[in-house]
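Chapter review: from sequence to fold.
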Amino acid sequence: MTGILWHEVRYAVRMLAASRGFVLIVIVTLGLGIGANASLFCAANALLFRSLPYRDPSALVVVTNARGVNRQAFSYLRAEFVNGNSRSLQGLAPFWNDNFNFTGRGDPERLAGMRVGWNSWVSGPKSGAPSRPKTIGWVGARWH
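The token string follows.
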């Protein structure tokens, strides 16, 4: 039984060695298929299956200065005022769209991104941290 199996394996290896182009195409196709499947699963897992990292994600709301299309960003002082004086909100995590200059090798690029306040993340600042406006800029197109 083992001899027949070994003979069949050697025959398969000889046939594959004779058609190297076919083997290369099969390996590249399998690699691309597995990579695409893993990427789609990661995106679906992050967007669909995991809940947001907040206690009650269904209670999240967006508060703006105006209605409709003319939304304007809150200033830091206004955000602090709303955060401290609101009776219906547990907290306020400011965020706003911004443009960034991406430099490095080659020509600089102008990229659209987002700034978010420190309390947008699950873990806030350590106790005793200075109370000045801290923001994080993130540009998704150039995450390296």
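Two observations follow directly from the output. The helical segments are 2-18, 20-49, 76-85. Strands lie at 95-102, 109-117, 135-138.
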